Amino acid sequence: NYKKGLKDYYKNYFPIGVAVNMAALKGADSALIVHEFNSVTPENDMKMGPIHPKENEYNWKNADAIVDFAVKHHIKIRGHNLLWHNQAPGWMFKNADGSEVSKEVLLKRLKDHITTVVNHYKGKIYAWDVVNEAIDDDSTKFMRNSMWYKICGDDFIPKAFEYAHAADPKAALYYNDYNSEHPAKREHIYKLLKSLVDAKVPITGVGMQGHWKLNDPTPELLRKALDEYSSLGLKIQITELDITIRMPRSRPANLNTQANAANANLLPVPDAGFTPELEQKQAAQYKMVFDIFRQYKNVITGVTFWNLSDKYSWLDSRGGGLAGGAAAGQTSSRTVRKAYPLLFD
Ligand code: XIL
Known about the structure:
With 345 residues, the protein is an alpha/beta fold. It has helices at 6-9, 27-36, 48-51, 61-72, 103-120, 147-152, 156-167, 183-198, 219-230, 258-262, 276-295; strands at residues 16-20, 39-42, 76-80, 127-132, 172-177, 205-208, 211-213, 235-244, 300-305. Bound molecules: (3S,4R)-3-hydroxy-2-oxopiperidin-4-yl beta-D-xylopyranoside. The site of (3S,4R)-3-hydroxy-2-oxopiperidin-4-yl beta-D-xylopyranoside (XIL) has 6 residues, from loops.
């Protein structure tokens, strides 16, 4: 019954996006996408493993279907992603005899992959997440010790941006990561971004994923991150916004293992459903972050929700979205703690 969608209310600010999978491209879900959103991100179908399962085989089917849907409905498209430690195909890092590839071979394969994929969607994808989650969560470390890093050192990051830029000079190129507003990780991401900017690597901006909680981030931390990243002259997109209702609570004194220590204050509350109290807290957190996004409209160039509605959220299979699964207090792998993280149910 609503005449206007989110995208219309936000037309003087930035595109409002949504992560989509194939299931959402039909029926009521597709109508909801078209009504509310003017940007889409394929949730999985452009990742390296799904789209490039074998060295000489690309699987364009799902990604093409999402792109065709978006083009037909005049919806912008963010590509996600060109390089990640997860959902990367095993063959990428191995020679025919099973041994590990050299740096030269891996960079050649990366170049082939990025050139082929970016070129396939040239002119249709306005922004790419080029490198995803390369910074370590451990604040005593810097780069994540992924296969990319193990084999290439940190060279793979500037190279990935250069390959993408060469394939489509008009596409905006982003570095994308989570917990990017938490001080220790923020400083590391800032340091990486600054080195790229200083080296004149073709990077447009930073994607702050935005997998958030009812009390996290605070407005101060969110503003600080937006200020720091934009001080580098970079644009910012919120790329994967969801706010779980699994409110962190204090760790009971008897839980004192190392795994739990890492997740102090991150124990999930029991699933009592989506109560009015939780709904109100979630609305307040959504309001807070969007109030800030609007104040930063000169640097924020897009806000994307990580999926269309609660039924599709990736968080439900992860204890409602708290890092660490079992370590975060999930008692059994069969425990489902629903996250109710999105605007639509
Ligand atoms: C998630 C998808 O939502 C899941 O369906 C998939 O099983 C795993 O990946 N950071 C990212 C996204 O950059 O690609 C992830 O998406 C969520 C975390």
